[in-house]
Amino acid sequence: MSRTIISLLILLLPLQSVQAKGTVFLKDYLDKCENSEADAMPAIRAALDCCARTRAGELVLPRGVINIRPEHAYEHLEAISNNSQSLKRVAFLMKGMKDFRITGDGTTLMFNGFMSPFSLEGCKGIRISGIDIDYARPFVSEGRILSAGKGWMELSFSESFPVEIRDGLAVFLDKDGVEYPYCNLLEFDTRKKEVAYGVHDWWLWNNVLPAKKVGENAYRFEREDFDGMTPGNTMVFGAAQRLHPAFTLWECENFCLEDVNLYNAGGMGVIAQCCRNVTLNRVRVVPTPGSDHIVSISADATHFVNCKGYIRMTDCEFRNQKDDATNIHGWYMAVDSVLCRRSALLRWRNGAQCGIRFLKKGMRLEFADPATLTTYAHLRVRKVEYLNSEYALVKFREHIPARVRPMDVVAEDDSYPDVLISGCYIGNNRARGLLIGSRGKVVIEKNTFHTPGSAILFEGDGRFWYEQSGVRDVLIRDNLFLNCMYGPWGRACISVGTGLADKEASRYHSNIVVEGNVFRGFDNRIVNIYSVDGFSFRNNTIEMTSDYPEKGSASERFVMEHCDNTIIEQ
Amino acid sequence: MSRTIISLLILLLPLQSVQAKGTVFLKDYLDKCENSEADAMPAIRAALDCCARTRAGELVLPRGVINIRPEHAYEHLEAISNNSQSLKRVAFLMKGMKDFRITGDGTTLMFNGFMSPFSLEGCKGIRISGIDIDYARPFVSEGRILSAGKGWMELSFSESFPVEIRDGLAVFLDKDGVEYPYCNLLEFDTRKKEVAYGVHDWWLWNNVLPAKKVGENAYRFEREDFDGMTPGNTMVFGAAQRLHPAFTLWECENFCLEDVNLYNAGGMGVIAQCCRNVTLNRVRVVPTPGSDHIVSISADATHFVNCKGYIRMTDCEFRNQKDDATNIHGWYMAVDSVLCRRSALLRWRNGAQCGIRFLKKGMRLEFADPATLTTYAHLRVRKVEYLNSEYALVKFREHIPARVRPMDVVAEDDSYPDVLISGCYIGNNRARGLLIGSRGKVVIEKNTFHTPGSAILFEGDGRFWYEQSGVRDVLIRDNLFLNCMYGPWGRACISVGTGLADKEASRYHSNIVVEGNVFRGFDNRIVNIYSVDGFSFRNNTIEMTSDYPEKGSASERFVMEHCDNTIIEQ
What we know:
The first copy, chain A, is mainly β and about 575 residues long. Chain A has three helices and 49 strands. In chain A, the strands form five sheets. Chain A has a 20-stranded parallel beta sheet that branches. In chain A, strands 4, 5, 7, 19, 21, 23, 26, 35, 38, 39, 42, 45 and 48 form a 13-stranded mixed beta sheet that branches. In chain A, strands 9, 10, 13, 14, 15, 16, 17 and 18 form an eight-stranded antiparallel beta sheet that branches.
């Protein structure tokens, strides 16, 4: 008991004497807890509370591994776009902090169980650097394929991924017996440490899979459509929910992450919503070094929604994560009904957006036709009342145009972030590389792509994911596209994947320039776009390789449908 | 669209002119919505908002069926003891209302999907009467047993319970395709409309069960330990969570429910927490009349925690619900650690209590030994800080005694409700009848019990469920115990089931008088108690029947261990 007492006693400590903009050392708090090696959460909580109350300028984290457990963590109900809404345990919960740094010294924050590392709301001028984020037990589970045939496979699991058969179904656990639910399977090439060539996701309706133990460390999984698995490869059981992103930002300004390694997370790496000026410099998303893990974090490496100002990602590495490297977009709500001349009921149509309350008085909203995503009107918000997580009753300053129909989509149309993505490595992950949906100035340069799907995708739609896009000014230059398209996610290295019912009538995207890049690959599909006004492809080098089995040469290198003002110079 | 528009336009209506303590008629609001037959929620919301803002005295509901859907319902994060914590959609969300009635006229509130009918917080003087609560689709699923053998059974399902096989597992749905998860099975006798004789729960580890469709309406379920099912009986798939009690009360005073029928609920019927003076008069929990349902609501009919004043249940019927008729108890938190002389960290140890924040400044807490539940100290709360749903940091006015150890239990010990349960029918349900854990005066009279487990149970424990009990004054008189004990839940008709590690050292319960009752049953087990000081059994009639296969005669009629001052007069 004494260890626990001393550990928690820190919660009662009076404020440390810290000058305004002073420095707080987590080590001082850790040293006061005998038990802080097992759980630094009470020390972090005390130190962070002290920083907030004394308006300290910096929290310094000591070198070494810091274990953090959820028991004494903060708690916060969070609706996070493209992740899962829930009441979350959070280690570093920061609200309204200003001009504050968290500085590690190669510090590893080792999280245990279901908790979020960082969640920031309404903060300004925050810089976090010099830390690694890892979890004692990843949110995905990985098995080695021992043998496989039509309708079955047999897997073994390392100590990292304890498994049990309960009522004939495979259940993954951690060492404390906490369950890690899964909802899909994806095969990775163990040797190449990337998504295996030509595979696809296996989705599980019920978040379980029947299994039998057939040997000391051998489990047999049967499903009618199983086929084509390669012994030696790694089967990854994807996390059923995205509960715990590493960094969750809401309405923050001037946020910088530098020299940070993300080895694991129970959701996205960095998800910024309604933020202005976000910098990621030397942020590396990679599997835990020295581990047998093939996957890094369990969803997109980064994701930005309704952001402003700028988004800069420089010299980063987005590798082996379980979804795209980034997705930059806005939110579309759908019109549920027009109630009177100035009032309408808006509705979230994508469940992973429910709970987001971004509408504000004075905001300029665009109304768009969901078939073409063409903006046909702008109105300003006078008042918002949220009925619940799903519906918002909005009164406008102006009359609602007569042409507004249910299912028309509505998004903020005030300003968009300028985006710079430079010097990054992007690849080996599930799905695509960069999903670019900002209407600001976008520069993508000097990156290396090795994505199994499209390296750069212009998506957005108002019928499935309800993500606002529609680029206006994109420069893609001096990048290396290296053997992309070895998986099923996309139609070309650079492509449009917008969900338009009427492609012909739409010119949703415009002014995309692709120049000075090297396309070195086994797959012939370089560009596949539609509904674009202004596309230039010039001064690029295309080199074919035989590094993977050829599959794309029968397809055209350049596909452009319903586009205007296109230039292709090979 | 016009119907929807008109339906929702009501959300914009200006306040109806209502005098203070005036009457609002829901019909007026329903009449303004063309679409209110499909969903009365916008009308209810507008009417209820009007009542709250104008301090109306009564909301009158019209005769007939009112359909209510979750889309436009209120939303509320609720931690409900012995139910499931979640962000809930609520139809009648009432906060801080006073001296207000909701009066139906045989009104059926027909709910659709995952939503809670009534949730009241901090209300005083509320009376709800004249309504039936039903759901278009129950939260349990029921199948008729076609045939069964060792390791298997085949079921058919009526239109009420749509089922699909997905990836080899049975999934239950409603007509809109919404999934109804399940976590256990229990067999009911279709003809007798009660839990089948001698059965027990089948628990499902993974909330799913493999199944195959083997005929037009025939589904085969296999599990190694399946055995003894009776063709013709009804297999009930119990709801995986208790998300939506019919009436959730928090810190309410003088609440009365009268002439209310509860046919379905997605949790308990009435759950009152920290309430004072609750009356249930002619509340009937029964399966939907005219339906093929064998189960009424999906958990306890009623449940009272940390209540004060009085609890009165008169002329009620608690039939066929999926758990006990009532459970009246307090909450035990456990000591996690003592931080200093006046501060301790307390922890919820039962996950279904997490999120409850009942500790208040000035509250008198008892400290008890979890092995005997003997109170050894009292302290008053000076300050409470909740770290999260699980932990509370409490500062006390007095010094914490040196003997306090982690896992010692702590409960409020200020006052307890007097309980009257009179003229009720209690039976045919899963498990037990009345779980009595108030230290106030308790009278149980003129009821009929036909419970498959104990009719009256004195439970409470500080190691499993963490429910404070310890009765002081119980009178059980003039009841009929009719063929109880046909299931596995309990050791006698009247019994103690307290979770004590040291029964010999404890006299947790005291002063129980059983007189003037009729025990008419096939099972010999009438009384089984321990750790009681003061138990009188006198002037009762015991009649043996052969209505069920005999199983209890080998057991003793009266078992009393570690009791003082007992009188048995047969």
